[in-house]
Structures are given as C-alpha cells and as structure tokens.
Design goal:
The protein is of the alpha/beta class and 417 residues long. It has 2 domains: 285 residues, Rossmann fold (3-Layer(aba) Sandwich), CATH 3.40.50.720; 110 residues, Dihydrodipicolinate Reductase, domain 2, CATH 3.30.360.10. 41% of the residues lie in helices and 14% in strands. It has a 4-stranded parallel sheet with strand order 3-4-5-10, sandwiched between helices. A 4-stranded mixed sheet has the order 7-6-8-9. The chain has a two-stranded parallel ribbon with strand order 1-2.
Length: 417
C-alpha cells in the first residue's frame, strides 16, 4: 500500500465524486472503432464491453507497514494536500492486512507488520483467508489482485518453478527460491482471483503458476508496469525501425527518490529491473533480421536513487542513430514524469480488463494486455510484442472479437466494397 496503490485508490475515490478526471485510463476515456471508417461507429470502450463500473469497486491491501491508506498516501508524497484531504475519510478506512515479507528479497525495507507462519504454504493459506474475509465482510462477488509492491532480488526460475507439484512441495518445505510475490500469486490463483504483476519479479512468470492459472480458470498478466522511460522507448523504437534508421547506442538513466528508488538502490533488486528494461529494444528492432542497422548497438540502463526527487522521476535518454549513407544523428529526451500518476490508471485498467476476461471464461496468460507491461508474459515458445501500437491494436481487436465484431486490419478493402 505504497505510492502507486494509494494514488490509484484515492484517484478512484476522487473520480467517483467528480473531483477529478480519469486521465490516462483506456477503460474510462478510450474509444474503439467498429467496422469501416465510413460507418462512423466509435463507441466508448466502457459502453462497448461490459466492464465493471468503478462505482462498484472496493479496496484492500497488504503491507509490511501498518499505516492506513491516508497515512501511507501522505508519506508517499504524490498527492496534493487538497486531494489528500478530499479523500482522507475514504483512505483512512483502508487498513492493510499484515504482509508476507522476506528481507532477503527486498533488502532496503524493514517492517514488522508481517505474517508469522510455520511454512510458506502456511503463509499462502493465511493470504487466502484474508481474501475470503475481505469478500465476506464487504459482500463482494469477485476480486482482482494487482501487485503494486517493491521489486524483489533477481532470481532466475529453477526446479521449484517447473511444475505446480514441485512448487507446492517447495511451499511446504519453505524453499528459499520462492519469493514473497510468488506466494501472493499462488494464494490469489488458488482463490480464483485474477492476478497482474506490476513489478519485474518472477512472481507468476513461470510454468507452475501458468499451470495453476489454467487449472483454476483464472486470467493472469504481467510483468512490470510500462510507465516512464520504457514507455517512451516503445513509442520511439518502432518509429526508428519503421523508417529503417540505424542505431549505434541508447543510453538511459533514471533519477527517482521514492520507495521504489530506495529498493532499486540495491544492486540485486536493480538486476530484476534491468532485465525487464533491456529486452524492449531487442524485440522491437529484431537485430537478427536487420544486422547492419541493429546488430551492434550499445544499450545501457541506469537507475539512481536521489531522495529529494521523491515520486517525480526523471528519465533521460541519449540515442545515437545513423541514416542515409551512415551519417550520424542524435535524439535526446528528458522526461520529467510522475511515476505513480502514470501507473495508477494502468492499475485501474488491469483490474477492469482482468475481471472482464474472467467473466468471459478466459484463463492463463492474457497477451492482449501486453500494452501495459515492460516485459509482457507470453504463451510458451513465443517472443513478446513490445511495439506499443501493435499492442494497442491487439488489445482492441481482442475486445472486438469478444463482441463478435470484425477485426480491424487496416487493409483498406472498404474502398472496393
């Protein structure tokens, strides 16, 4: 219940009361073209598919600090005093459940509002009890979970992640390779709760969890919210490739001072984020198909913790490219963004789209939600699609398919009908 979660929850409260607008949310402000351009059919997304109404959302969270939502939001320092006070009563009523926490996975944070249990399986069962209690006490029909927590220490998948049987055995013996985020994911899926992973953690991006999602008929998505610098890369890199301009190097550095920056100041946690960020260019540019243009570029990513910056992140990029006859050029970007402000509408959209997918009987990895992630999960054997515009086309075509509408291919055949 840190900066992203409290900004999301307060935002929904303010939007419901008409104090603010849901800027950045595809589910709330987006439209979708249907049929030919000459048909002039472009309804709002929320009118086209049966999304849950935000008036019907309720909220719960886990956290290793006992602060209620108002206190947590005030400490996060994202929202203005005016917005904090307007949402004070609503936020103060949200008190977190004790967290599942392992300091070996997040070394820069310490908290005592944590669960104590005999094994990691016991911890998972305790989380499942929390979910059932929340649903029962609030008289809820359905739940969706979105990981808005910290980045964990990088761990590659191992034998314990290879199958559901191996994973459950690992939970019972408290295998060290099972991260807290994976315990949350397991508990949610066992409870029939769709789950989205907003961090670069392994969490549910391994065979055992995909197997569980399929068995329980639950949709899953991830990983790592695509907000600031990587979002810009997935806009610009497709443009360079579309014009077949060459790339010598792309240097990226970030300055941020929130809890995320503090956690990522640990080299082992940064490794998880680095892996998530570095894969974007390779998949978009496809150097194996264009070795002369993209076969030798240097891609560097840095994150610097600078406390005075708070949640106001700065993403700085220097791009060295070359054009006709090999002549060099440069692009420089300085994106002064607000991390949680960019992430909050993503959380809302994922909640509503995953709930829609669950009601539509869709289960397993939801590749059509790649639009929201730096390192999208895919079906086994497939590479992820990172191009933002292809991702958006896939998302909207999935919604068209769900409603029995023709898919938009942009072939222009309407001129010959």
């Amino acid at each position: 219940m840190g900066a992203v979660a409290t900004t999301f929850m307060a935002g929904v409260d303010l939007i419901r009361r008409g104090v603010a607008q849901p800027v950045g949310s595809l589910t709330q402000l987006g439209t979708i073209r249907l049929g030919k351009r000459t048909d002039n059919r472009s309804p709002a997304l929320r009118d086209f598919v049966p999304l849950a109404d935000i008036e019907h959302l309720d909220f719960a969270a886990w956290d290793l600090f006992p602060d209620d939502g108002y206190t947590a939001a005030r400490k996060a320092g994202v929202l203005s005093a005016e917005h904090l006070e307007a949402s004070r009563e609503f936020l103060a009523a949200i008190k977190p459940f004790p967290a599942v926490f392992d300091p070996g996975y997040v070394k820069r944070l310490q908290g005592d509002h944590v669960k104590r249990a005999g094994s990691k399986m016991d911890l998972a069962l305790a989380l499942m009890d929390d979910i059932q209690r929340f649903k029962r006490e609030r008289a809820l029909d359905r739940c969706v979970a979105v990981w808005c927590g910290s980045t964990e220490t990088f761990r590659p998948p191992g034998a314990v992640h290879a199958s559901l049987q191996a994973f459950e055995e690992g939970l019972r013996r408290s295998d060290d390779d099972i991260a807290p985020s994976a315990i949350y994911a397991y508990a949610c899926l066992r409870s029939g709760v769709p789950y989205a992973n907003g961090a670069p953690n392994l969490s549910l991006d391994f065979p055992a969890m995909v197997e569980l999602a399929r068995r329980e008929g639950v949709p899953i998505a991830g990983k790592d919210f695509k907000t600031g610098q990587t979002w810009m890369k997935t806009i610009l890199a497709p443009g360079l490739k579309a014009r077949l301009l060459g790339l010598d190097g792309w240097y990226s550095t970030n300055i941020l001072g929130n809890r995320d920056g503090e956690v990522l100041d640990d080299p082992e946690a940064f490794k998880s984020k680095e892996v998530s960020k570095l894969g974007v260019l390779e998949h978009i540019l496809q150097p194996h198909l264009h070795p002369t243009l993209y076969g030798r570029y240097h891609h560097v990513v840095r994150i610097n913790y600078y406390p005075p910056r708070g949640d106001n992140k700065e993403g700085w990029d220097n791009i060295d490219l070359f054009g006709w006859l090999g002549y060099p050029m440069q692009i420089k970007i300085d994106f002064l963004c607000r991390d949680s402000i960019l992430a909050a509408p993503i959380v809302l959209d994922l909640c509503l789209f995953l709930d829609l997918a669950a009601r539509a009987g869709m289960s397993g990895v939801q590749e059509w939600l790649s639009f929201y992630f730096k390192s999208p999960m895919t079906a086994p054997g497939l590479y992820p699609e990172h191009d933002l515009f292809i991702q958006l086309m896939k998302l909207k075509n999935t919604l068209r398919w769900m409603r029995g509408e023709d898919l938009i291919t942009h072939l222009g055949l309407e001129y010959y009908d």
